[in-house]
């Protein structure tokens, strides 16, 4: 099953997969359709982009993670234009790391290489682009790796100097939700409460350093 919002890219992937003997049971253009079609067709492998409608954020990844939680043995291959280690780490943090792949579109050197990756991931292998591996190794030294993707978004907006109300509007959530995220950020970063430093400022500094 293929999930890709670009029509040309989607049809191209279908053509390549068919050429190498695979049957594409569904090809969809948004994350909601991915979840629905996966429930209907029960695919042997899901090939998905990260950023796609309806939110144009990490909707594709979120859908893939939800499918994987429902079917822990479902192979997932992410083919993305973006290198974001938190996405790869989130996928690998699901528990069983078999049947997981993360490739960068611009770094796929040959169609045969891509086809081989599809077979390996479908068979339970784990395939990560070398650049993704390098970023994950760096992430181990990053204190921000304790944060969830949403918490990192909140912290990035904090670094822009936005108030909690402004952050809530930007993320389309309540102020109470933002307050909860900020409390979690401060706790996860282990920032002390004292009279000489404001923890919010320390959190922003940690973000800017990393």
From TrEMBL:
UniProt keyword list: DNA-binding, Phosphoprotein, Transcription, Transcription regulation
Source organism, top-level taxon: Bacteria
UniProt cross-references to SUPFAM superfamilies, sorted A to Z: C-terminal effector domain of the bipartite response regulators (SSF46894), CheY-like (SSF52172)
InterPro entries in the cross-refs: CheY-like_superfamily (IPR011006), NreC/VraR/RcsB-like_REC (IPR058245), Sig_transdc_resp-reg_C-effctor (IPR016032), Sig_transdc_resp-reg_receiver (IPR001789), Tscrpt_reg_LuxR_C (IPR000792), WalR-like (IPR039420)
Pfam families noted in UniProt: GerE, Response_reg
Positions of the Response regulatory domain: 1-120
PANTHER family referenced in this protein's UniProt entry, alphabetically: TRANSCRIPTIONAL REGULATORY PROTEIN NARL-RELATED (PTHR43214:SF24), TWO-COMPONENT RESPONSE REGULATOR (PTHR43214)
Protein name: Response regulator transcription factor
Native source organism of the sequence: Streptomyces koyangensis
């Amino acid at each position: 099953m293929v999930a890709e919002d670009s029509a040309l890219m989607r049809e191209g992937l279908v053509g390549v997969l068919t050429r190498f003997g695979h049957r594409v049971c569904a090809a969809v253009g948004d994350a909601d359709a991915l979840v629905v079609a996966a429930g209907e067709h029960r695919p042997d492998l899901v090939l998905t982009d990260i950023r796609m409608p309806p939110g144009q954020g990490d909707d594709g990844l979120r859908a893939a993670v939800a499918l994987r939680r429902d079917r822990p043995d479902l192979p997932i291959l992410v083919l993305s234009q973006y290198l974001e280690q938190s996405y790869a780490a989130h996928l690998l943090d699901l528990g069983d790391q078999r049947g997981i792949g993360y490739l960068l579109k611009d770094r796929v050197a040959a169609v045969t290489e891509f086809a081989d990756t599809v077979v390996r991931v479908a068979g339970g292998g784990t395939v990560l682009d070398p650049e993704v591996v390098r970023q994950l190794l760096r992430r181990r030294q990053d204190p921000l790796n304790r944060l969830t993707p949403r918490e990192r978004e909140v912290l990035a907006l904090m670094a822009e100097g936005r108030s909690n109300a402004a952050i809530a509007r930007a993320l389309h959530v309540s102020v109470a939700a933002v307050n909860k995220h900020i409390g979690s950020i401060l706790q996860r970063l282990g920032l002390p409460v004292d009279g000489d430093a404001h923890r919010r400022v320390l959190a922003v500094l940690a973000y800017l350093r990393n």
